[in-house]
Structure formats: C-alpha cells, structure tokens
Amino acid sequence: MLLALHKPYGFLSQFTPEPGSRWRTLADFSLPPAVYALGRLDADSEGLLLLSDEAGLNARLLDPAHGHRREYWVQVERIPTDAALHALARGVTIGGYRTQPCAVRRLDPTPSLPPRDPPIRVRPSVPDCWLALELTEGKNRQVRRMTAAIGHPTLRLVRARIGALSLASLALGPGRWRELTPAERAAVFAAPGTCAR
After folding, report:
1. Is residue 197 a part of any domain in this protein?
2. Angle at 88 (CA atoms; ends 87, 90), nearest 5 degrees
3. Which residue from 193, 187, 197 is spatially nearest to 2, judged by alpha carbons?
4. DSSP track, 7-68
C-alpha cells in the first residue's frame, strides 16, 4: 500500500509525540495501521508526504543514487538575484557539507496554495518571492539551510512533487490522504527526466 498525504503545518512526520513537543503527529489523520512515512517533512513544512506498509520502499525512494527528484516550493524573504540563484543551483556549503547541484527557478506567478494556519509573519517593508528547488537529496532542514546560505531565509516551505507525482495532480487539501492508483504509484518512481508538472 502506498498513500499520499497533504501534510499541513504543525505536524510531525511520525505517529508518536516527542516529549514536551507542541507539535501534533500523523496519528491525527486516521491512517491505516502499520504504515510509516517515507522520508519526512519537518513540522513547520507542508506538502506531499508518502506513507507505506511495504519494506524497502524508503531506501528505493530516498537514496540519492536512485535520483528521485523532489520539488519544493519555497517562499523566501527578499528577492534573490540571478547570481544568488546560480550559487544555489551549483551547491552551497551548509554545516560543513556541500549540497549537490539542483534545479532552481523563480515561481511566477505565485503558486496558488491554501492559507497556512498560522500564517507566516509578514513585514510590509520586506518583499518576498517564491522559488522552486528540485533536489535528489534530503539532509536535515536542507532547503531552509540552503536558502539561508544565500541570505534569503525561508518563510514557508511546501513539498510540491515527488518523482512525477505532484500535490496539484492529487487534488488533496491539507490533512487529506488517499491510496495511490497504479499509475500514480508508477509516477512516484518515474525515471529522472520524466517528471511531469
């Protein structure tokens, strides 16, 4: 079984609470028993999260050697220059680790997303912009650390796509989930270069 969940802000990608944590867990979504998250999204991140009860899918999907692309939509503070975006695409150093090259582009128009609860902080005097980052790796808080490395802190982070399977194509609102069809399952494991938007 392979499930897709639109994880909202404020939920851990696990079923057991962290001691003393204010974050809620996946137990709130009435998911089938014995499923586990394939990868993770931090509690303050949103978007497409896959879950399964099948052993071995985690490594098959998340190992960078397999090249499964994941696209993140990132709202950042201020407007990055072309030079900053090129630096991000080439790879930046975060915590002594150099990130692999990735695809980066500005999202114009701004993506249509449900409002976040609570909303991000807004400073009228500071503009913001949305970027799309496509990665094949996923270190702890990597996207946030990458945008910070070029001087543009992340305000909101949404995983929009895994392989060729997009959150938009699933038409799932925040907190909603369903089992993937065979065609959708194939899209998750689509070969690099076949990603559909």
Report:
1. no
2. 65
3. 187
4. EPTTB-SSSSPPTT---B-GGGG-PPTT-EEES---TT-EEEEEEES-TTHHHHHH-GGG--
Q: Is 128 helix (H, G, I), strand (E, B) or coil?
A: strand
If you count them, how many residues does the chain have?
A: 197
Q: Which two tokens stand for residue 158?
A: 């949404």
Percent of all residues in the chain with a pLDDT value above 70, rounded to a whole number = 93
Q: Which domain holds residue 163?
A: 2-188
> Which CATH number covers residue 103?
3.30.2350.10
Does the pTM surpass 0.85? The reply is yes
| Residues labelled as active-site residues | 42
Under DSSP, the state recorded for 109 is: S
Specify the higher pLDDT residue, 7 or 195.
7
Asked if residue 159 lies in contact with residue 72, where contact means CB atoms within 8 angstroms, the answer is yes
